[in-house]
Every structure is written in C-alpha cells, then in structure tokens.
Amino acid sequence: RTKELGGNSYQYYQPFMNQQHTELLQMESYLYDALTNKEFELYYQPQIDITKQKIVGMEALIRWNHPLLGRVAPNNFIPIAEETGLIAPIGEWVIEESCRQNSIWHDLGYGDLKVAVNISARQFQHKNLVYTIANILTKNGLSPQFLEVEITESSIIQNPDLAKKILTQLDELGIVVAMDDFGTGYSSLGYLKKFPFSKIKIDQSFVRELKNKQEDLAIISAVVILGRGMNLQVVAEGIENAQQLKLLRDLNCTTMQGYYFGKPMNAKEATCFLGEGLRGNKN
Ligand code: C2E
Ligand code: MG
Ligand code: MG
Ligand code: MG
User: Fold this and answer.
1) 150 C-alpha to center of ligand 4: Å?
2) Cα 39 to Cα 26, 75, 94, 122, 127, distances in angstroms
3) Probe target for ligand 1 pocket from 44, 94, 118, 260, with the most ligand atoms within 8 Å of CB
4) How far is CA 201 from CA 73, 77, 111, 175, 238, in A?
C-alpha cells in the first residue's frame, strides 16, 4: 500500500524489523484512518502585537488524539504523513478547519484576525493546492489576507522551483507567505530575496537563551532591521518569560508568540482567550 503511494517508504520495509519499525508501521496504519475517525484537532496559539496590545493572529497547530496511542505530537507523525502522502488530505483538512474557525471568529467581531497554517514540503506536490485553498477561502467567505501559510526553508530546498511557483501564486491571491523557523536553515537570505515572503518568524532557538547570549541578541536585532528594510513583518517565536519579552521589545521586535502570552489551545479555549482579549481586539 505504502509502496504505491511513493516516497521513500521502502526504507521501512527492511528485513531487520525491530520494535521501532513495528511501531512505525503500526502508527502508519493508524494514520490512514485518522481523518475518517475524526482524530485530528487544531490547537491555536496567539500572535501578539505588543505595541497595539492586540492579538493579530492565531497559528493552527495540529494534534492527533488516537484512542490507543493517546496524543501524538506533530513532530512525530507529520514526517510519516509526508512519507506516505497522507499529508495532502491532512493538510487540506487543516486549511479547511482553520479557515472555518477564523470565519467564525470574524463573525464574532474579531474582523481582522489572521489564521496561520503550516505547510510542509510534500504539500507543494498536491496537484491543486492553490485552487483548493482559493476554494476554501471562498466557501468560508474569508478574504485571502486573513490566511497565512508558514513554510520552512528546508521544505523549499527539496524543490525550489515548484515552491516558488506555488508561493508566488498564493502571494498573488493575497495570502500572507511566512518563513517559519527563520535562521535555522542555511541560505535564508537568498530565499528572502527570491521568494514572495511577507513575514519572517525568528526561530525559538534564538529566543531561548537570549539573556546570556550576546550572539542571539545580535542575530535578532539584525533580523528585525533586515525585516524593516525588506518590508517584511517580523515575529519572534518561543517567548516564555517577561525578561525575553523585554529584551525583544528593546530590539524593536513588536510581534511575538510563545507560552508567555498563550500556549496552543483548542478552539473553545482560544475563543475565550480572544474574548478576554488584550485591549483593542474587538472592532
Ligand atoms: P512550528 O510551526 O515552528 O510551531 C511552533 C512550535 O513551538 C509548536 O509546537 C508550539 O506548540 C511550540 N511553541 C510555541 N510557543 C512555545 C514556547 O514558548 N516554548 C516552547 N518550548 N515551545 C513553544 P508543536 O505544536 O508541537 O508543533 C511542532 C511543529 O509541527 C510545528 O513547528 C510545525 O512545523 C509542525 N506542525 C504543526 N502543525 C502542523 C500542521 O498542521 N501541518 C504541518 N505540515 N506541520 C505542522
Ligand atoms: Mg509554524
Ligand atoms: Mg517555528
Ligand atoms: Mg518548527
């Protein structure tokens, strides 16, 4: 079955089937049924503009609740979903569900809230990705500017021409294209110039030890200036405490995401979070 779907799935079927391999196969077979069984759920993490004291976006983060495996983290199943090609229907579900949720939030009065979805490399091969996204937006009455797609450098590297073609089409539709985990790859600057990014997300590894690391301060400061010069929005990820917030603020970083502001929450909790709001959110 997996063989037909292509990818590098062969590597799982070697004779030395140890326990790890068996678990992987088990997980893979569970993953085939996960959509039908409605085992996926989206969590949302707020992005805050600290100058406006406002929640400007929600990043959708997928969760898989399996009856036997329990909660499986995306880093543990997204690679399998990519390998098997299941990422296409799963990714489509993520876009559909997050747009549906965002249009509910718009109806509740949060009329300029954006929702961000993560797109992985293999999703670029989805034949009608752009068309599918456009349809989902129309169906939910959501204008394209309220959807962001987050792409990592590593997913561009796999097929830069295809990535460029698709990202350009998404950009032309008015969708916000963001580079995720910025700074962890190796040729980000060239990509920033060649690809239609409007936003960069500074990876959390630069924020983590900010207080002791002169290097991290220098890198973040440079990225903020770079963003300004290239007319890109800059978001810092992984803010966990007030000290990091202060340091980032001093570096003129205005948009932030992290446990300090809010952990990823289910839709209901995220709606309450919006309601408690930082001032300025309703419009
Ligand atoms: P990401 O897009 O870089 O998402 C940020 C990750 O950092 C999330 O982990 C989030 O829960 C976590 N995080 C946020 N704030 C903090 C913080 O203050 N401290 C710490 N230590 N962590 C923080 P999560 O939800 O486990 O997702 C991991 C990765 O899985 C994501 O990284 C993204 O690459 C991928 N992913 C998640 N959902 C999807 C999806 O729907 N589709 C695809 N293709 N990938 C997804
Ligand atoms: Mg992301
Ligand atoms: Mg990230
Ligand atoms: Mg990541």
Assistant:
1) 10
2) 16, 16, 12, 21, 25
3) 118
4) 21, 23, 23, 16, 10
Q: Is 61 in the pocket of ligand 1 (CB under 6 A)?
A: yes
Residue 282's pLDDT band, with cuts at 50, 70 and 90, is low
Choose the weakest-confidence range: 4-13, 176-185, 191-200, 231-240: 4-13
Question: Parallel, antiparallel, or unpaired: how do β-strands 255-257 and 199-202 relate?
Answer: unpaired
Dist CA 228 CA 207 (whole Å): 19
How much is the ipTM here?
A: 0.98
Give the residue from 195, 255, 189 showing the smallest Cα distance to 222. Answer: 189
Residues in contact with 59: Cβ distance below 8 Å, sequence separation at least 6, in sequence order: 44, 45, 47, 115, 116, 117, 118, 150, 257, 264
Please state, in angstroms and rounded to a whole number, the distance separating the CA atoms of residues 30 and 27. Answer: 5
- Does residue 171 line the site of ligand 1, with CB under 6 A? no
Q: Which of 89, 83, 26 is nearest to 62 (CA)?
A: 89
Q: What is the pLDDT of residue 38?
A: 98
CA distances (Å), 223 to each of 6, 48, 187, 202, in order?
39, 18, 14, 8
Are 192 and 232 in contact, with CB atoms under 8 Å apart?
Answer: yes
Model pTM score: 0.92
Q: Find the mean pLDDT for residues 139-151.
A: 98
Q: Nearest CA to 115 among 98, 93, 134, 137?
A: 98
Residue-wise pLDDT tens digits, 36-91: 999 999 999 999 999 999 999 999 999 999 999 999 999 999 999 999 999 999 99
Q: How far is the CA of 61 from the centre of ligand 1 (A)?
A: 6
Instruction: Answer whether 50's CB lies under 8 Å from 274's CB.
Output: no
Which helix (H) or strand (E) is 274 found in, with range? helix 267-276
